[in-house]
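Posting for a labmate who doesn't have an account.
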Amino acid sequence: MRVLFAGTPAVAVPSLDALVAAGFDVVAVLTRPDAPLGRKRVLTPSPVAARAAELGLKVIHASKVDAAVTEQIAAAAPDVAAIVAYGGLIPRPALDIPRHGWINLHFSLLPAWRGAAPVQRSLIAGDDVTGAVTFLLEEGLDTGPVFGTLTEAVRPDDTAGALLERLSHSGAVLLTQTLSAVDAGQAAAVPQQGDVSLAPKLTLEDGRLDWQQPALAIGRRARGATPEPGAWTTLGGQRIKLEPVILRPGDPALEPGHLALEGKIVLVGTGSHPVELTRVQPSGKKMMTAADWARGQATLESVVFE
């Protein structure tokens, strides 16, 4: 079966590899254009583009699927399109090209967390279980009928990055199985059922920790915002990036945002019990352990996160 693969970030690469390993004829790869990365803003291919080049596959670079890109997709004559975190909408003319449609691997249990940041929003909300589905892409936002589902338990220390990494590999297996079933004429998609929730892309503000909130909510937000956009707070009007915190329910309460040192452990007060800082990155400096950062503060007890 001739497959067009659409994807951009690293979490889409295992799916591309799985389809190639399974013997599918990947006739083209659609991905977003090279983007400037790092302090020097060097134009860099997407992880999917880089892997496609290694595999010797034709690459279509596009920030949006316009008429010209649609013509390129049609010229590739795919039987089906597999899409994993491409990062753009697929308009009706392009949706109609493959005879089996576009099959999307999405990292949530639809209809929960429709949108660009399902894993991040799931962690912030405190879900115990998440997963991935394959579904038939429609013009609506993640509304199409579902082919297959897998579930994944959320671990207490999961960050969005760690959870996405696991789902990217198990999801690649699910996507390959779904396309194999489609090729064999044995796939049946069923309408989504359940409560709908939305997962818009996280903004920088979504990573800000509110120390008036309970420790559990702060911990969830920090893990959901890691690695992007990153958890952060402010001190003296300067933004400080934080890695996920550790809950300390047995420690004496501190005023929200106030800090205390117990040996080499740096605690911050919340709306409930304290949390322990792990690593801290002050503005303009490298990430460091919380203990090293604390040693640079004249009097830690006078430090208050805003």
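Reply:
Got it, the structure tokens are right above this. The CA atoms of residues 34 and 136 lie 28 Å apart.
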